[in-house]
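User: Here's a chain of 148 residues. Predict its fold as tokens.
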Amino acid sequence: MNTFTTLPVDDATGMAESPNYIEGGKRPRFPMAPSIVLDNNGNVTMVIGGAGANAVVPSIAMVVLQTLLSNQTLAGAVKEKRLSATPSPNKVLFEKGFSQTITDVLQMMGYEIEESRKAFATVHAILVDNDVITASKDPRNPGVPAGY
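Assistant: Prediction complete.
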């Protein structure tokens, strides 16, 4: 239910200000980012996706960047603590244990910083590196990676 909004109705149009306004029989829109990352030759390098409402897109982006640009292991990147920004108010939510240095810098830049009270998005990914396939599932969610 937290994907729905209770924003007021616009007086001029009589319409909800958000596509996720609560209405009977309605399913909420929510962010998704199932992704396939290709190398320069068009070969699959990574397949990644997740769940977790507004935090899913930045969570996926963080795992991709940490794995492909920072040379972190896939499992390490998936386990890493995360953050997510909200557009209004200008707030950054972060998981307990996230880098204090980074949150301090964000605060100096004018962001409101808040430790999240709930679980962040979960990310599951498959990495192809030199024809070796590695799968990793997020420890924030039960289960095991599997492939055939």
